[in-house]
């Protein structure tokens, strides 16, 4: 049975078989009112967001010059610092979570152009793409139908894309398989290429240099190990591939703004989800916004695109009262 299209909540969709390894998942949001800001941890993945009625407001981050702004649609590239974002009212949004190599094939550009930033989808997908796609999603009568629309649109782009370099695939696979504990010299031996060429390929296909990717992969490995692993931070540092606990603490603070103890406490209250070994975007674990940032906030003066697509034909209404009539 299909999920009610107007029932508030988050709805998860699986991509078609032809998009597995390209699209991690689809996520639909039906919001009856404002949502508190959430903290998104850094990752190497890419997220394409399409919303209508209420834009996403990015409060802080990404690192490279993006001021707080409202985004009815956006592509968020690989990030190296936490991002605080939220919705200020009722509306809908669809997120398309892409693997790095999937984003390289679907977006048809070197991913270092997206690193540490957010851009409007039309800059990559072509003029009018976001409005046209949003209009089709708005008209759909169920979430599964929305996933089918996205499957068809993305499959067409994939067929016109460029296959990734086998050496880039090999280097990225080794980084993930080893939990980030692999040196540039080891990557050159595995691929048979020089160090400079390996660095160029990873920046082009994944968006970030190998040292940064190792740091992010190791960070997420530590979170995954901690979800079922030791209580001792010293033991966790060793199992996750850090030199010692202080090394782990420095990386945790740089990537999340939290100490290992603080972040793991929050993670254990709301466990993370990892999908098929892919580093997930929006891996937020329910982190609250910093105390200086209230959960409900007014939309600041925008520095990015703010014109939203046409409003939907239906509203995302709150659930009916249990004490009311039919």
Mean pLDDT: 80
Cα separation of the termini: 21 Å
Can you tell me the CATH superfamily of the largest domain?
A: Jelly Rolls
Helix content: 25-40%
Main-sheet strand order equals: 1-2-9-4-7-10
How many domains make up the coordinates?
2
Determine the number of helices (DSSP H or I, runs of at least 4 residues). Answer: 11
What is the name of the CATH topology of the largest domain? Jelly Rolls
Main beta sheet: strand number and arrangement? Answer: 6 strands, antiparallel
Quantity of strands, as a count:
10
Question: Which band does the percent of strand residues land in?
Answer: 15-25%
**CATH architecture assignment of the largest domain:** Sandwich
Quickly give the structural class.
alpha+beta
Low-confidence stretches: 271-313, 318-326
Radius of gyration: 20 Å
The CATH C-level class name of the largest domain: Mainly Beta
Question: Tell me, what's the shape?
Answer: globular
Query: From N to C, what is the helix and strand string?
Result: EEEEEEEEEHEHHHHHHHHHH
Biased composition (Low complexity): 294-305
Domain HTH araC/xylS-type: 175-266
Protein name: HTH araC/xylS-type domain-containing protein
Keywords: DNA-binding, Transcription, Transcription regulation
